[in-house]
User: Which sequence fits this backbone?
């Protein structure tokens, strides 16, 4: 992955627009957050292989970045994205890493289902 | 420590065996006991990606699978079996089916000892769920063929709730093996070991206390 460059990410978001795409969206503060008393509780949410279609996808901010995907009947939103990659399978991977390189958020798009 | 006929290790994530039980495993393999490791997932949802990060959410399972094989080589585990479950989801699977799968392995290899997480004291929900399934599995086995269970507890209140551990292993002879196994899980251990080294260098008392903790492993014999 490399640091997000908004023009390249924006062009890729545009390519995935107006078609059914599989989405992976997650955020986590780590399964041991409460145990290590870094936070009061462990918080995590993920959706893997949600099938969605958006007509307007935008990357915003000066870093860490935000991405909003506007759908016919709703929104998909992610904040705290720092890095991105268009992988060899043509999937758009975006993630937010903290100063220790730990993943705090991920938003990924693919025309094929993600592996389980 | 008696030489076991066969040891079965049941943990959900690659690196649980190294952070949690590498000392015990190394002592058993060095004594000549065969060890089978039933590993639940590939830790697909881990947030550590290496420092600096070199894995993505999508490459992490492949990275961790390689690390798992490396760690098993370090520990002398020659029978690694992956259950193919997904990180964070074990507690939502059919618990009876999980227990039956583990029971089938117990029937096959007839272990004299099983090492797994102490249900309710594993902190991570996957630890608690797979530990519970492994213990449930033993109840599906004829009593005379049930392995002794050494349960690994990491909760803050473990001694309050469970009393003192009845199995305390001195790892002096295998500490280097344990550290090598942990290092094999590079994506997961790199940042943590660097941080630990920094703390140790800052305060000799912290190093002394820390090394004392590293030099032993504790287990509670579980009576299913």
Assistant:
């Amino acid at each position: 992955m490399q640091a997000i460059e908004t023009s390249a990410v924006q062009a890729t978001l545009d390519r995935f627009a107006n078609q059914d795409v599989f989405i992976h969206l997650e955020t986590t503060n780590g399964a041991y957050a409460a145990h290590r008393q870094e936070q009061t509780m462990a918080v995590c949410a993920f959706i893997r292989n949600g099938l969605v279609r958006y007509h307007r996808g935008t990357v915003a901010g000066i870093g860490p970045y935000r991405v909003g995907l506007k759908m016919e009947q709703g929104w998909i939103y992610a904040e705290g994205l720092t890095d991105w990659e268009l992988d060899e399978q043509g999937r758009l991977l975006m993630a937010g890493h903290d100063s220790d390189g730990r993943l705090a958020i991920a938003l990924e798009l693919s025309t094929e289902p993600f592996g389980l | 420590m008696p030489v076991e006929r066969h040891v079965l290790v049941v943990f959900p994530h690659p690196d649980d065996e190294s952070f949690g039980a590498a000392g015990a495993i190394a002592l058993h393999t060095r004594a000549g006991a065969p060890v089978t490791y039933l590993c639940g997932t590939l830790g697909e949802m881990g947030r550590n990606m290496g420092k600096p990060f070199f894995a993505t959410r999508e490459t992490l399972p492949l990275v961790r699978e390689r690390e798992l094989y490396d760690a098993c080589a370090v520990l002398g585990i020659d029978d690694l079996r992956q259950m193919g479950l997904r990180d964070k989801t074990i507690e939502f699977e059919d618990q009876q089916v999980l227990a039956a799968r583990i029971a089938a392995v117990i029937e096959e290899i007839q272990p004299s000892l099983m090492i797994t997480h102490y249900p309710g004291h594993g902190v991570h929900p996957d630890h608690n769920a797979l530990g519970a399934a492994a213990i449930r599995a033993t109840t599906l086995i004829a009593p005379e063929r049930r392995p002794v269970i050494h349960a690994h507890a990491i909760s803050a209140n473990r001694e309050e709730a469970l009393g003192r551990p009845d199995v305390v292993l001195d790892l002096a002879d295998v500490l280097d093996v344990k550290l090598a196994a942990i290092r094999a899980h590079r994506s997961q251990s790199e940042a943590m070991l660097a941080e630990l080294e920094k703390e140790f260098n800052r305060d000799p008392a912290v190093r002394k206390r820390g090394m004392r903790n590293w030099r032993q492993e504790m287990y509670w014999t579980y009576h299913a």
